[in-house]
Amino acid sequence: GAVVSQHPSRVICKSGTSVKIECRSLDFQATTMFWYRQFPKQSLMLMATSNEGSKATYEQGVEKDKFLINHASLTLSTLTVTSAHPEDSSFYICSARDSRTETYNEQFFGPGTRLTVL
Amino acid sequence: GENVEQHPSTLSVQEGDSAVIKCTYSDSASNYFPWYKQELGKGPQLIIDIRSNVGEKKDQRIAVTLNKTAKHFSLHITETQPEDSAVYFCAASKGNAGNMLTFGGGTRLMVKP
After folding, report:
1. Which of A58, B21, B64, B67 could be A48's S-S partner, Cβ–Cβ 3.0 to 4.6 Å?
2. Is B97 part of the contact surface with chain A (CB cutoff 8 Å)?
3. Could you give the percent of chain A with pLDDT greater than 90?
């Protein structure tokens, strides 16, 4: 149980285009999902907290108009990188919290999406 | 906010030896401490976690200890194997709904056969 999938696993795009990444909880419902960015040999940096049916909460320094988050259902959150530039190239990872165990912050992580912007 | 520091950043051990990774945290209200293993090109996988109402937890070759007074917790891996080679992250959280995990900087563990 507690499986989280991400799609696509890898994406290469041209500068100026937009890219959408999907995060799905496969066998549980997640009212809260998180989006992280990880640069090579660095730790995970939280970008935003995605709440089902409401607006996402962004961390300081993360542009909400550039990184659009939609959490339209209890099993799906999407991250859209708009007008991508080479500096947006990174490993994007989502995680989800099981709605049944929200008293403790157990998070289940997806396999990540490698974004390369040319 | 919470700050989590992790040491060492790299650790090399011989197969069969033990490995210890240590983390300290700053927020005394934190009460949930997971450890994640991340292999190259993959997402983090939870390997063990501990909550503030216990001091030690063990799962086969992996154990975690927690010292709330000193605000530090450690991961212990015994009888290391080459497949244990990966990056390990500690994290801390207050555990309330909506509270996020704060990650340590990571430890790259290399187990030499």
Report:
1. A58
2. yes
3. 75
